[in-house]
Amino acid sequence: MTSGEDFFQGDDEDRAIAAQVVSGQKELFRLLIKKYERQVYGMGMSFFHNSEDASDFTQEVFLKTFRNLSRFEGRSRLSTWLYKIAYNTAINSVTRKKDYHSLVEDENIPDNDTPERNLLKKLAQDAILEAITGLPERFRVCIDLFFFYDRSYQEIEAITGYPVNTIKSHVFRAKKILREKLAGYQGSVEGGIN
What we know:
The chain has helices at residues 4-22, 29-48, 51-68, 78-93, 115-133, 137-148, 153-160, 164-181. By secondary structure, the chain is mainly α. Helix 2 crosses helix 3 (51-68), helix 2 packs parallel to helix 4 (78-93) and helix 3 crosses helix 4 (78-93). It is globular.
């Protein structure tokens, strides 16, 4: 876990890079791509479910970010602003017939344990995935951004446009539903859902 000082230092670094890119050092934009590419690609996989579309989405998001970087006013973290661009791009690209899938689908279980423990972890992961897939889309989006992207309620508000109290309610209700659905897996799931 990073200290608050490290957190703000990273944010200051992002702002400094953005300012340099806007002032003409365009090649520095690759540093922002390198830092956030994995997260944006993960969001693309959550929405599009295949690597080709997720890669196209990632490229489109960074192109939009580059084109609009001069509009970044620094009122939020650069990452929050970038995720808002990504979220809006995804929402605008996905038809209502396609479902949003949680990033938990793409989590790989490390193979550094006994086969029995790996099997238990895999079964627990499958149960969590099934439980999350059964949540309403608005709950899944909030859960993903809160737990997998480590975004605050205020950042999720900036990204999705949902009011903070609605986000808190969605996360609370989703956790309650998941707790109920996963009650039988408590022994298998390390850490649980608190």
